[in-house]
Amino acid sequence: ICLVLAVPTAHREGVAIYGRCVRPLTLSQARELKILCDVAQLAHAHAALRETQQQPEQLLKPAPAVVAATLPGMVFVSRVMSELARSVERVKDSDSTVLINGESGTGKELIARAIHRLSRRSQAPFIPFNCTAAPADLIESLLFGHRKGAFTGAHADHDGLIRAAEGGTLFLDEIGDLPIGLQPKLLRFLQEGEVHTLGERAPRKVNVRVVAATHKDLRRAVVEERFREDLYYRIASLTLDVPPLRERNEDIAALISHYLTHYARRNDRAVAGITAEAIRALQNYSWPGNIRELAAEIERLVLYTDEGTSISIEHISPRVCPPQTATGQGSESASAHLENMLDEFERRVITETLKQYDYNVARAAVALGLGSRQTLYKKLKRLTINVGDFIQDEGQPGWQLRSDKN
């Protein structure tokens, strides 16, 4: 097959492939060509954004979002995400459980939905469930169902989410928080393909593919006996690692364009664009809250910027772009510059330690050698770290601040 891949320069919303084929394309070849089109379109959009960044007097204006068809629902141009898309392509039609690892806010549920949409189960239901969203004593009933009268308060039959996902995909988010007492029952469901509804004697056969996700180190949880080893090996046969935003910096400009358009439309705001200087400032931030934090910042910028004006570096949150950086004058002293570098390093260390200890401030303070959590709270305040920004549940709207209990 001889092909010429053409990317229009005047019309930036599409690409075309012209070719001469000796014989009709197979379905696999057609799919590969479609992927080439998508990659070319993303690369062209990224080049346009880079060009805008190199010309500070120009603006990045809201434009139709460039979403990767190779990974539905995701916006990216980076190589690491392209590799993840290839991994999704390999596992999409397997009936084996897939475990998605990644920090909070990286888009693990979007990856799970992409697996479902690309699979042969795409016409059947996709049922998400967050293992932290319900009290431990209700999770069994929610997942496996119950019959009327099975327990106090069971006034009607409930099939359960597993049976609701028949023929499709069940997404178990934050599986690392699944109560240890329920893990054997989940293991049996995964091994035997059957559920035992509360109040029924005989199990029921089901045809459900499971995708699980976690931001925790499950191997460490196994060592600490908080997660069953046999269940871990059952769900970890196929694993996907979603990189944090700081490891895919080249995607930030495309994500800015996507969320700028999205929030301008949703809030009916006329935003002229965003300056290249502001884009660079957003790219220089480490984004400990990942894409969720970036999306929240873009929405704030859209709402706080005057109608018809452009977003500039002065509009960015001080937490993301400290005032010394926002001046852009290069007049700060060497000592102030060093202080900013040290603050950023300290901010990263504290954020990573909080994630490691599941945002338990007391345990993180001990691990950092600070002695007490009051000392850590003072540092969080000084460094403008809001723990609540980074622990929102993947599938739940709004911010959720966990209580700090030992």
Features of the shown structure:
single chain, 406 residues, alpha/beta, Helicase, Ruva Protein, domain 3, Rossmann fold, Arc Repressor Mutant, subunit A, 3 domains, five-stranded parallel beta sheet, three-stranded mixed beta sheet, 11% strand, disordered C terminus
Verbal overview:
By secondary structure, the chain is an alpha/beta fold. The protein has 3 domains: 2-70 and 248-315, Orthogonal Bundle (Helicase, Ruva Protein, domain 3), CATH 1.10.8.60; 79-245, P-loop containing nucleotide triphosphate hydrolases (Rossmann fold); 337-390, Orthogonal Bundle (Arc Repressor Mutant, subunit A). It is built from 15 helices and 12 strands. It has helices at residues 27-53, 79-91, 108-118, 136-144, 161-164, 183-192, 218-223, 229-235, 252-266, 276-283, 290-304, 323-327, 334-356, 361-367, 373-382, and strands at residues 2-6, 16-20, 59-60, 98-101, 126-130, 169-173, 194-195, 204-205, 209-214, 238-241, 273-275, 310-311. Strands 5-6-9-4-10 form a 5-stranded parallel beta sheet.
Short account of what is shown:
The protein is α/β, with parallel strands linked by helices and 406 residues long. The chain is built from 15 helices and twelve strands. Helix 6 (183-192) crosses helix 8.
Blueprint of the fold:
Layout: E1 2-6, E2 16-20, H1 27-53, E3 59-60, H2 79-91, E4 98-101, H3 108-118, E5 126-130, H4 136-144, H5 161-164, E6 169-173, H6 183-192, E7 194-195, E8 204-205, E9 209-214, H7 218-223, H8 229-235, E10 238-241, H9 252-266, E11 273-275, H10 276-283, H11 290-304, E12 310-311, H12 323-327, H13 334-356, H14 361-367, H15 373-382
